[in-house]
Specification:
By secondary structure, the chain is an alpha+beta fold. The chain has a domain of about 90 residues: Cupredoxins -  blue copper proteins (Immunoglobulin-like). Helix content is about 15%, strand content about 30%. It has one helix and nine strands, in the order αβββββββββ. The strands form two sheets. The chain has a five-stranded mixed beta sheet, with no helix packed on it. The longest helix has 22 residues. The protein is globular.
C-alpha cells in the first residue's frame, strides 16, 4: 500500500511540474513600454538654486518636446525669464505638460514662479 501512495505522489509531482512548464512559457503578447512624456525630461529636485533642475542646462533641439518631472513634495513651475517657451506647472510627484520647442536656437533662462531662487537654462539648438 505504501508503494502505491508513493507512486501516486511521484505522478502528482511530475504532473504539477509539467503543468508549470506549460503555463510559464513565454507569452506571445509582449507588453508595450509606456510612452515617454517628452523627448527631453528635466527633473525638478526642489529648492536648490541652479541645482533645482536636472540637467541644467538642458539641451533641446528645435521641434523636440520638453517636460518637467517634479520629484519634490511641493508644486513648482518652469517659467521663462524672457520667452522661448510657455510656463508650465508640475505638482508634487507629477509631470508638467509636454510642449514642443519652436523658439530660435539660443539659451533661455527660466525659474520657478513660486520659488524665485530655483533657476535653470534651456539650451536650444537647431
Amino acid at each position: 500500500m505504501k508503494r502505491t501512495a508513493y507512486g501516486l505522489l511521484v505522478v502528482a509531482i511530475l504532473a504539477a511540474i509539467s503543468l508549470t512548464a506549460v503555463t510559464c512559457k513565454k507569452s506571445s503578447n509582449p507588453v508595450t513600454p509606456p510612452t515617454p512624456i517628452a523627448d527631453v525630461v528635466i527633473q525638478i529636485n526642489g529648492i536648490n538654486g541652479s541645482s533645482s533642475f536636472s540637467p541644467n542646462p538642458a539641451t533641446v533641439k528645435v521641434g523636440q518636446t520638453v517636460a518637467w518631472r517634479n520629484v519634490d513634495g511641493t508644486t513648482h513651475s518652469a517659467t521663462p525669464d524672457a520667452g522661448g517657451f510657455t510656463s508650465v506647472d508640475a505638482g508634487p510627484g507629477g509631470n508638467s505638460a509636454a510642449q514642443t520647442i519652436t523658439a530660435a536656437a539660443a539659451d533661455y533662462g527660466y525659474h520657478c514662479r513660486f520659488h524665485g531662487t530655483m533657476v535653470g537654462t534651456l539650451h536650444i539648438v537647431p
